[in-house]
Amino acid sequence: MFESERRQRARASVEAHVRGFFTGHAITVSDYDLGPGRRELVPDLRILTVSPGPRADSWAYVTAGCWSTVETDGHGIEFVLTAPVRDECFADLLAMTTYYHAGHTLDLEHSLPIGEPWLPGSGCDHLLISLPYLHGPDLENCPLADGHARILWALPVTAAELAYRREHGHEALEQLFDEQSMVPTDPRRPSVA
What we know:
Blueprint: H1 2-21, E1 27-31, E2 46-50, E3 59-64, E4 75-83, H2 88-104, E5 111-113, E6 126-130, H3 137-140, E7 141-144, E8 147-157, H4 159-168, H5 170-179
Parallel strand pairs: 4-8
Antiparallel strand pairs: 1-2, 2-3, 3-4, 5-6, 6-8, 7-8
Helix pairs in contact: 4-5
């Protein structure tokens, strides 16, 4: 019972942190059931859907409840995904990322294939786990009563971009993003590599 209460406290703290950060945005919260055989790995998962507003002109989808899947000494990860429109497919993508994280322990600069483009017509079929540059450290750093959650960005990228990163390093890829003024929410953006 104690572990369940701890998870729920952490999830509530993440939700409060996201609401505080996105003051002035409309936010909806959905319980997300990963289904039989999966829900045990990520119990109590919620996805917060944040509308455009004063802090950002794009939609944001944020996990709450991922922290407890792979936390160490009270420190764990949640994810944020930014998108050009509201669509349930982004909540599904974050839920898939959370499930993958439960089995593979994602962290900063890790990546994962998503099996298809993140949006129809996009060349981005992988996610790169990055700092949440669109929102900054005020969203990233989420204190909890029993530790800390770090909210990292699940950034859609191309296979060519990941190949470039493997050859030149993560910082070199991020520099290309900056140099080419990459718009991360544009599903038809060209690959920078």
